[in-house]
Amino acid sequence: RRPQRKYFAMARRYDSRTTIFSPEGRLYQVEYAMESISNSGSAIGILSKEGIILATEKKVISKLLDTGAVGCRREKMYKLDDHVACAVAGLTADANILINKARLAAQQYLFTYQESMPVEQLVRRLCDVKQGYTQFGGMRPFGVSFLYAGWDEENGYQLYHSDPSGNYAGWKAHAIGANHQQAQNILNQDYKDDETFGLREAMKLALKVLMKTMDSTSLTSDKVEMSAVKYDAESQQVYFSYVTEEELEPLVSEVNEEGKAKDSTS
Amino acid sequence: LAYMSILEYNGGAVLAMVGKNCVAIASDTRFGIQHQTVSTDFSKVFRITDKTFVGFPGLASDTQTMLNKLKFRIKLYSLDEDREMEPKIVSNLLQTLLYEKRFGPFFVEPVVAGLDKNNKPFISAMDLIGAPLLAEDFVLSGTASEAMYGMCETLYRPDLEPEDLFEVVSQCLLSSVNRDALSGWGAVVHVITADGITSRVLKGRQ
What is the mean pLDDT of chain A? Predict the structure, then answer.
């Protein structure tokens, strides 16, 4: 006798709607959100002892795009405070809401404690918001994954990833967005956790990964946006800067060369 | 001890003046509790953006709090708009922040001085509930205000070069605070030009 069968069949009608468990204990909406992110432009984050690199694939490229307007200059990467920046994969509109919350949280902490908000605490604050949308309210989760790159005095350079479920973890290198599994594999193989791995090596590795995962056959600097988070011990300040096209060009050429060399030997 | 107004509890004076393509802002450096002087390096003027300074003379606690509130708002503005806040907008924001506490105000009477994005000088002052004063020549605030008005009206002339502006501002401030028991004990003068900021510390009558 299997009376539970009918019960399960009824429950299935509701469990893909909002924040309810499925019989197997899954949250379908959260999973669907992650699915939506896998279709968006990729973002890579790589930690090195000299700083953190964030690299993103520019999905929206059109000569009609007004690059002077503020909104268009920032599609994937945002500064949250002087010492933390993030890269986005997923629905940009959803990301904007969370980014505003993060910026506000960072300033409120600074106002109260007269000290920059520790990176993990900022991540956790955002994740708690995201988690709320998986448990109550009946609203869909945020369709965004973030890579946070920051520095604080307690823990130095940190790279975190958070997803629509509100889960987060610290990483040495991580990829999100389109082809992130493939990107993650390459990072796994080529990331070096030692003294020789500086900022430049991190930049090249990021470009190499993007080259493999992007649709185009060869990488050009106009399709990539890259930024660095660096702490300068002398001035005791964290600097967030975009890597300019001039700085990217030689690295792109090097990576392309090395790629061709490898292809011809293998 | 009795005091006329809570704005006179700590004492202090701030002055800002427009020169030729430059502005100067100065404050005394006394921090006192009524008649007792507690510190002689408490400047009431702070740099809040690249080319804008604000002075908060009045109750010292509110000096610090208003500064922190202002820095909070300026940071959010620059992250959101991806540009620096112009001095005129800083002034407008301060007016709003002050009026929000209309029936329980912050006891500061701010002075704003800076160069806008075209390096044109801007100065303004306001009362503790945000009533603005936009002037072309000079603005001032604090416990030595009457003396400062007299000095500035006499010594001011338009289009002073940065070096001369420094001299005029220093003389106006020093002479005025020397006659005020609650202000003085040193001064700091910042001169802002398109090329940069020159800050000098003055030693006054002890």
Answer: 88
